[in-house]
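HOLO CASE FILE
Compound: pyridoxal-5'-phosphate
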Amino acid sequence: MFHPFDVSDNGHLTIGGIDSVYLANKYGTPLFVYDVNRIRNNARAFVDTFRELGVRAQVAYASKAFSSIAMIQIAKQENLSLDVVSQGELYTALKAEFPVERIHMHGNNKSREEISMAVKNHIGCIVVDNFHEIDLLEQTLIDYNQRMNVLIRVTPGIEAHTHDYILTGNEDSKFGFDLSNGQAEEALQRLLKIDSIHVMGLHCHIGSQIFETNGFTMAVERLFQKLKDWKDRYQFESEVLNLGGGFGIRYTKEDDPLPLSHYVKALVNTVEESTQSCYMSFPEIWIEPGRSIVGDAGLTIYKLGAVKDIPNVRKYVSVDGGMTDNIRPALYQAKYEAVIANNVYGAHKEEVSIAGKCCESGDMLILDIELPKVEENDLLAVFSTGAYGYSMSNHYNRFPKAAVVFIENGQDQLVIKRESFEDMVQNDLSYELGGKNNEASSN
Ligand SMILES: Cc1ncc(COP(=O)(O)O)c(C=O)c1O
Ligand SMILES: N[C@@H](CCCC[NH3+])C(=O)O
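Model generated. Tokens follow.
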């Protein structure tokens, strides 16, 4: 097994020393389980590399990957900063008492309310995405008589090697100001004229699940081509350069991710070369990893149910979750590996496909995987579901959201409760307009 989890003598998968079968019995399934040690190690790989290189930096955890109070508390303990993209993510961060000065807000359509919430709570920085937002922010700062630090999000025109839906740094993107067509420069000009705004620098994020460093280094070079020009023309120097997230992780055997420190070293090297050749001072570097902090630290345990064998076609094995707790296979054709958690090394391997239980033919979690012969109530553990699993979960078919458990120091703790049916209908109101008449006419 190439995923970072162990197997006990009785063939059960263990997470941080705890038996997955015990966890499934205790908390039910589907169940997200995180090895907190691994989250911390991933975070430290970034933080420590910057420290070793002697570079001033902020590692901002992109909380969209998995936002919960417990997770934000860990980010705080690890001295990370935090990237939020909505009032909900900001609210979660505030509930977790995350230091506001290290919160950065993103979003391609920040509402007046979102901007007000950020301003009122004195967050560290807003990453400005478009002209409409500049107007809203300027007005909000007048209303609250406050100042705000901003970064300008730019699209450097890099086509990262990843799925189209998770590619963001190219020209044809809904995010940010284009660097080559003059829009980024126009944004800079407008922002520099607003007294209540301090432009700290530039931000770019080229995409997600990227396995090479050259996309990042090319982006840095493009940023500096502009920065050099802007220094000459506006005496503007970027104190901060935020180079986004997107560092790839291992989902399957085919994935060969770089050690996280390599990305940091490549970024720092290129910034160093670029600042030297442009005679500029070295900026503080910020990055925004999400997936690479939580992705491989989490897995999902499901219970197996119905098996449908279509001879010479496919054997469908269904789990008690699916696209409601992991929409990535349906959305991006994302691939995963899995084991039978209660029988990891079981014999009589056969090829099966893992189906979710939603009313959609496309709700297939894994196509064609070799597993030991399965039986009803066996447990399936799907690896690397720690990022964009729970955070993208939904209520399709009115399946309640799964529970989340953290493991650390040989102990388990529930950090998100399983939703009840009552939780799911709590905002539903019964319909009262014209009820009587329609009851009468239908009788
Ligand atoms: C602006 C921004 N920053 C950071 C991230 C985090 O990306 P990842 O989870 O791939 O590290 C994303 C998501 O792709 C993003 O859009
Ligand atoms: N949600 C995506 C990544 C996009 C992240 C946000 N820009 C995924 O699961 O891979």
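CASE NOTES: The pocket of pyridoxal-5'-phosphate (ligand 1) is lined by residues 62, 65, 83, 106, 168, 205, 208-209, 244-247, 288-292, 387 (CB under 6 Å). The first helix runs from residue 20 to 27.
CLOSED: yes
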